[in-house]
Description:
By secondary structure, this protein is of the alpha+beta class. It has one domain. 35% of the residues lie in helices and 33% in strands. The chain contains three helices and eight strands, in the order H-H-E-E-E-E-E-E-E-H-E. The strands form three sheets. Strands 3-2-5-6 form a four-stranded antiparallel beta sheet, with no helix packed on it. The longest helix is centred in the C-terminal third of the chain and has 19 residues, at 84-102. It is elongated, with a radius of gyration of 19 Å. The chain starts with a helix and ends with a strand.
Amino acid sequence: MRYLLLIFPVIFLLNGCATLVSWPVQKMTVHAYPEDSIVKIDGVHCDSHCTRRLGRWPTHTITAEKEGCKPCYFATTKYMNPWVLGNILIGGVIGVAIDLASGGAVMIG
């Protein structure tokens, strides 16, 4: 009985595993060469080497431009956060639902 009382708090704490480990935002670092390129992430200007916190659910656009060069356009891609597997195995439906609702189930690249 004592062990059963210890198992329930552990299962409760493991729900939303990807959310607890990853948070709903992710840092994205952009390095553009040449150094004086104009870089924009979602239309917001940043240096040629910058780091921004981006939400996991929306698709983000990254633009790099320099006079005399062809502009580059990129869109972020989404993939499943491996921590979601912990919820599928241990946390169950509640944990997966928490990860999906918070954005922790998705990683951007």
